[in-house]
Amino acid sequence: MAFPFSRSRHPSEAPTSSGGKTLALAFELIEVLAVSLAIIIPIRYFLVQPFYVKGASMEPNFFDHEYLVIDEISYRLREPKRGDIVVFRYPRDPKQFFIKRVIGLPSETVEIATGKVKVYNHTFPNGMLLDERSYLDQEVTGSTQTITLKPGEYYLMGDNRASSLDSRIFGPVARSSIVGRVWLRGYPVDRWKLFEAPMY
Q1: Per-residue pLDDT tens digits for 61-101
Q2: Cα–Cα distance measured from residue 121 to residue 142, given in angstroms and rounded to the nearest whole number
Q3: From 187's CA, which of 51, 61, 112, 200 has a CA 20 to 30 Å away?
Q4: How many CB atoms lie under 10 A from the CB of residue 44?
Q5: Closest CA to 148 of 114, 176, 106
Q6: 55 torsion bin: left (phi>0), alpha (psi -120 to 50), beta (else)
């Protein structure tokens, strides 16, 4: 004989008061907020962070008021490469952040003469003239100097060589002062771009 099927209400399906619903919603919101913070905070402080361009030192590649995303994780896995565009703490005032391009690597000698940049290292003991046509609007680099970098030091310059406060003036930058590399430009939208170091 078949009996009619009857289903008892599961305890979780029991009617709840409006106060209980409010409390459950509050706990759900707290849980979502906690999970969101657990994801966002590490990303914001350890992986990537936004950066606002101020000034003309990197024109024509970066203009005033552009928004960039800085990759902080890459340099935990490798050292900065020549041609990387980096954000770093200004050596004379660590509260300020600058954006420049890596030109000289630790223990290399950087020579600026007759408007050109040459680097000396173990691979190029007689010097390698940098071909900077891919990112310089004009290929003339002002100043005349020769400097040998210590281990852990980098020589950084702006792409707008005529209007850049860089290592030609404040000297080499310590590795510990480099925050990360420019990964992408997010704004303005029509200039959105991912960045990689150029091939020399």
Answers
A1: 999 999 998 998 889 899 999 999 999 999 999 999 999 99
A2: 22
A3: 200
A4: 13
A5: 106
A6: left
Q: Is 45 exposed, middle or buried (0-12, 13-18, 19+ CB in 10 A)?
A: exposed
Give one word for 43, left, alpha or beta, with left for phi > 0 and alpha for psi -120 to 50.
alpha
Give the H or E element holding residue 84: none
User: What residues act catalytically?
Assistant: 57, 100
Count of alpha carbons within 13 angstroms of residue 17, beta-carbon side: 3
Residue 199 CB neighbours (<10 A)? 8
**Of 10, 85, 98, the residue nearest 54 (C-alpha):** 98
Helices and strands per DSSP (H, E), number in the chain? 3, 12
Q: Is the pLDDT of residue 1 over 90?
A: no
- For 4-30, how does the pLDDT look when each residue is reduced to its tens digit (9 = 90+)? 334 444 433 444 456 677 877 776 777
The structure tokens listed for 103 are 């030109």
pLDDT of residue 29: 76
The 3-state DSSP class for residue 104 equals: strand
Q: What is the mean pLDDT of residues 19-42?
A: 62
pLDDT at 34 > cutoff 60: no
Q: Residues 151-164: pLDDT tens digits?
A: 999 999 999 999 99
Q: Retrieve residue 68's tokens.
A: 């960039």
